[in-house]
Every structure is written in structure tokens, then in C-alpha cells.
Amino acid sequence: MAEVVTKPCLTCAIHIPTAAKLCTHCNTYQDYRRYLSFGQTSLALMIALISVTGALLPPLSEMVFRNSDLERRLISIDQTGAIFVVTNSGNMPGSVISAEVVFPQSEGKSTRLALPLTAQIVEPGKSQLIKVTPSDAPALLVTAIYQSISSDNCMLRLSLLSYYGKVSKHVEEIDCDRLTSNLFIEGTKAIFAEMPPDN
Fold it and tell me: Higher pLDDT residue, 42 or 127?
């Protein structure tokens, strides 16, 4: 018979055949699997740990990633004001803090006029109607601004405040004539009063 070539077991040092993957004396694997040997208790504890971690992840993520996620959509604009729907898809409350109109001027500059708005809180997972009322800016001021605008598109900007204090400004581009005639009533009267009649 040919002599069997042996090697020492990596755990108990008893000589076993070189090609052996498992020691018949101590029952230890001779390859990478010997580092993965789990007993029944270890395996049960690992499964329990994975289950508990999986159950705790959603509440933990809500605790760590707490914030509001506010989005807005303009519903209508007329002489009673502009109405937005603000939705909070976050897990903490946010708020609507201000509204303004931005009139484009020459050389990349702009003029801003604030619009009356009562700050409102939007609870997480809910939507809320926000009404921006027409401005009470002096007619002559609005007329002067209107006559110096450099573009047909003005901006209606709503400022939203997140739970962590970050302010995001959401912009709606609206034709300046439409915006002014609805949200600056006194200014519009002055504008049309000063316009020369058609020949």
C-alpha cells in the first residue's frame, strides 16, 4: 500500500490525511470554516440580535432623522389673495413664515415687497391651506416699481421653516400683470389711472 501523506490538525495537532477537510478526532474544519464555527447558543443569540435590531431600526431612524419636509403648490390667485397647499411629509412639524413678491429690475437686481401672511404650523403627515392676502403697499410705490420692471415674469415667493430652523424659499413665476392686478389692488388702480388712453 502507498504511504498516506498526513498533516497535523490545525486545532488538536493529530495527524490526518493531507486532503482531509475535517479532523476526525476533534471535528474541526481545516479550511476557512473553522473560523465560522458557531454553537447552537451562539447561533440563537445572533438570530435574536438580528431580529431585535430589525425591529428597532424604524424608531431609531425616526429619532435620528427628525425633520419636516415641506412642499407647496399654488392653487389659485385672485383679488382675494393667493392660496397654497403646503404638505409636510416629514416626521416633525414645520411652518410657513412669510410671503413676498419679487419684481425683476434691470442689471439683475430685484425689488421685493412683503405680503400679509400669518405664520402657520403644518403638522407632520398633513396638508394645510395657506392664504396670502393682498398687499397694502402704497399705490405710488407699487406704480413706480411696476413701471421699472425688466421682465414680464414676477415671482411669488413663500418661505417655509423646517423643524431644524432651515428656511427654504419656494418660488412661483407669475405674469407681472396678473400678479399685480390681484395682489396689489391699490397699486393696480394707480397704474391703470396713469396709463395713457389708446388712440
Answer: 127
DSSP sequence for 75-116:
EEEETTEEEEEEEE-SSS-EEEEEEEEEEE-GGG-EEEEEE-
**pLDDT confidence band for 112 (50 / 70 / 90):** very high
Per-residue confidence at 199, pLDDT binned at 50, 70, 90? very low
Widest CA span of the chain, in angstroms? 124
Neighbours of 111 (CB within 10 A): 16
Single pTM value for the model: 0.61
Give the burial string for 164-175 (b: 16+ CB within 10 Å, else e). Answer: eeeeeebebebe
Q: Count CB neighbours of 114 within 10 A.
A: 11
Are 73 and 156 a contacting pair, CB within 8 Å? no
Bridge partners (DSSP) of residue 37 are none
Least confident span in 147-151, 180-184, 185-189, 191-195: 191-195
For 22, 29, 31, 33, the CA distances from 12, given in Å and listed in that order, are 12, 11, 14, 16
Nearest to 88 by CA among 166, 189, 192, 160: 160
Per DSSP, 124 falls in state: T
Residues in the chain: 199
